[in-house]
């Protein structure tokens, strides 16, 4: 640091030291230096039993954590804001800060304060940052959700000068707690959907991309986006950095990667190295996801279909929670991954289905497997922690038990000659770890393991002779101390005399204050040497105790030293076998998912869907997986329904179902169940139906009219229209579109007109398979002229003046809306119901004010199909209007000239 220009900590930018302001203290100087090296992190600065935060960090943390903001000393003449968290509770505070998207640098004391004192009274304890905690690079179980992946995502973009490639993005994502590493490319239109699928814990982008005009507002909607300096995304060094992480000479081994992909991948590993301070968590070699390999589902659709969580934000009640029957955390994570990214290749889907089918057909095997799996620990996460030196004794035990479970499962499955490919592959991966590692861990580790290695007691007695000897000495001395206490009590005549221990004094003799004087006087003071007088007690030492203490300490130190060495050696064994252990961990997860989906299929009566490359969409006896289970819990039956949106023979466009029926009849449920069945089918699961035949869907869209989106502060109708626009612009022949009451958010005739035109566009331009639910009965007239549109309705019955919902989908249009009947069911006062009936009869008998029938609406007048629609510029429109108003024949030459001037001025935006 330049001594003449002191670094100004954040929050003190304009601070000039007032006259006579003291120089920063040495501790403050040290803080400022360390803070300067970690400018974009909150600095947890270790001081004794606390992590302290200073300056702006303190203000941010105090606000975020709801802890007290205090002051400590002055810097450049001003108070230094400060807050602190106790070390033993720091995980909890870290967790909350990380969840809010902050990054934290943890700065520890690297020596004993006593060491520092030896260098002189003023010297400062050596400190440095030992780790950076960021939302995307966590490994601790306390900071992670066991059932979810936590991704760090790096995004690179082509430089805008490279015109032919401009607007291409590469995504590279890593879960350092499991070692997963993937890469994909996409264009800007698909970027948000890709990110929505991954739900990254943290995103890193270059400074330039972070500040990009178009994308900057979007980045702000994501939880933690970190801009990084250009060198992290430097194309020239990308390949070298990536190869060096994996210790290989060239990245060719990873298959052909584009330069853009290399950039993103290198940025990702570089950031991992930086946050782990050079340690390299075990990563799988990056695998590339081919474009279009997964079903594209945008953010709004994911939210809408409640795939991973409900609209209220909870896991419970989501599709994921409903179909998750896994018994391990790793299995649960893999299932979530598959659900978030269903496949589009029928052969790959069939591979997964084959594994599920095998488990469906063999209940004995399935039960056995699930029992063994449920005893298997989280291998992948234990492994990552051990490699980055954050592991504990229990992580070693997890590796021991995980390998044993893997080998046991492999033996059990090996007897199956007829096993499908996915299972055969899993078996060979399960056998990869060397059984000798598990045996060594088994021999070395004690039965009851401490949480932290520094607590000692992790090595089994009898494993290491030197350790056993040191322990015996230590324990023997402890017994001697107990005997000594009895001796001293007798010698002094103080029965309550105790020998105690603390970190400051070590072992000491303690008596209550009333007995203190006796020990301070002759003859006892020859034995007892005064150390400390407290309010209630007096403390002493003796030469004997001092000698014993040294002996105990050295024996205990020696024992702990041996234990720590053993731990390091065992962790080294594990680290060396990281790749094999990771492979086995993945295989365990895959087996868990296959048997869990089979268990689900059997217990809930799901069938194997046929998935192919046609444009079929036939579901017989389909059910909504979530509603069905919810109803079952209440003892109610779910009414199964059919759906056929298949493209007619020789046709490249699918059919559209127009569904009408009163509120509460089951329209939304039916729409969603068909979308969910497609998702389940393409993720490789069986589906809740009697039979299903699905031509692969490449994009799925689902929108609900007037969805409340108050959180983002947009008008609900605006949101509805923006989302509908996205669908009409993007859906293709392979897409599946679900529109639920589009147009509901505005006045009746507006809404009806928009819905009308939307259906026409879907039918004529998009050609996708679609379901459209509406309460506009007028729309049913469209089926007469749109050949691939057909009407369906929810059946209801009227019984003694009440409406009864049968939840059954039948061909044809609903006869009327039953709104008043539904209102009655909802408990509106009888007087209101009666009055409403009266008004309705009156209204129905009158002529309606606006369009008489809908038959005369021109069908395809809106725009030529496919023609891009140009947004109209209001200024240009105004100018056009002015031009049209001119009557050249009626003007004098002078008027004509003035009109010209006026027009000229108007183009500059100045209306004369
Ligand atoms: P709509 O969209 O027509 O207003 P919903 O789809 O919201 O109706 O359904 C209303 C309620 O009816 C649901 O909460 C569900 O409990 C029940 N329901 C819907 N479909 C079925 C079905 N097929 N079988 C049994 N109950 C159903
Ligand atoms: Mg509805």
Bound molecules: adenosine-5'-diphosphate, magnesium ion
Q: What does the radius of gyration come to?
A: 36 Å
> Tally of extended strands?
27
Mean pLDDT: 87
The strand line-up of the biggest sheet is 13-23-24-25-21-26-27
Q: Characterize the main sheet.
A: 7 strands, mixed
Low-confidence stretches: 1-20, 707-713, 848-871
Number of helices: 30
Q: How far do the termini sit from each other?
A: 62 Å
Assign an overall shape: globular
Q: Helix content range of the residues, please? A: 40-55%
Strand content: 15-25%
Which structural class matches the secondary elements?
A: alpha/beta
Q: How would you describe what is shown here?
A:
This protein is α/β, with parallel strands linked by helices. The chain contains 30 helices and 27 strands. Helix 17 (421-430) packs antiparallel against helix 22. The longest helix has 34 residues, at 543-576. Bound molecules: adenosine-5'-diphosphate and magnesium ion. Residues 627, 631, 638-639, 661, 663-669, 807 line the site of adenosine-5'-diphosphate (ADP).
